[in-house]
Amino acid sequence: AVYGLAIAELAQRMRTRIRQQILNRDVEVLQAMVGAQFTEVSSEIQMDVRERVDQWEVLLKASRARGVVATRRFSTDGKCDEETFPFYTPVAQLSEADRKKVLASQPIARFLPAVPRREIDLTSDLDSADRSPLKLVEVILPLQARPGAEIVGIGQFMLEGQTVASEFADLDRSLFTQSAVLFGIGGLILSISVGWAFGRLQSKHRQ
Questions:
Q1: Euclidean distance between CA atoms 55 and 47, whole angstroms
Q2: 33-65 pLDDT, tens per residue?
């Protein structure tokens, strides 16, 4: 039982770490795009990107990344802009914990397995064909020209999450199979070893 619990704990830790690595791929791609667009927009306007309209130009260009379905901008005090992309995306709240983490230059990426459609699409109630929840990946980034530069805003990207959900499912199946094999082989070795040891002990006791 102890051996089984140890394997389960190890598998859970690996699962958490690998899942975060999968999510961090989107963070790295979007961070690179935001940095590149800061440089491009700054060159176009001949000054640093600070104004909200210029930040939105950065966000809209970065939103061309594959899988992005919605984008929001927050001020550094956590207030969401009334303007969103696409226009039918509702405004949202940014938790204080997330705000503080992003302002400390720590991007956030999380998998959201069941997001109601109305939270990402205000027109969803008009279409009764499909109201099933969406699988999404949320990425929240500091808007800055480069790491260590001044943070002028906060960008939130919502990406389609079906691909990540499939990867997570494959990962879970792989970890379960590997854990079961490890438990079976290890358990067999332990059983044989303990059986042999108790057999020797019984023999000595009889003598």
A1: 12
A2: 999 999 999 999 888 999 999 999 999 999 998
